[in-house]
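[09:14] KT: can someone run the structure on this one? pasting the chain below
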Amino acid sequence: MLYLPLPMQSKNPLLSEAAEELQRVLEPTGGPFCTPCCMAATGLTLYEIRKAIRELILVGWLSASMSGCRICHRRAPVAFARLDPFSR
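[09:31] RB: done, structure tokens below
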């Protein structure tokens, strides 16, 4: 009998591919990045970025606030990785 390998599964099965891509971009630096800079870094659409940000906030990996973007230095709503997920 021939056994085929299973497709690669993500680290977190609850996250979409867009959320995983955003997490890969934010992981090395931690952010904060505004939405247009996240779009440029990942190649995702505005809808996908907003959905990914919501997903990562819900699992406790990401937070958002009004601050300056690390890339464009514009004051806007930015997303940044939490240093200690699940901390308040």
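[09:33] KT: thanks! The chain has one domain: 17-81.
[09:34] RB: yep, looked fine to me
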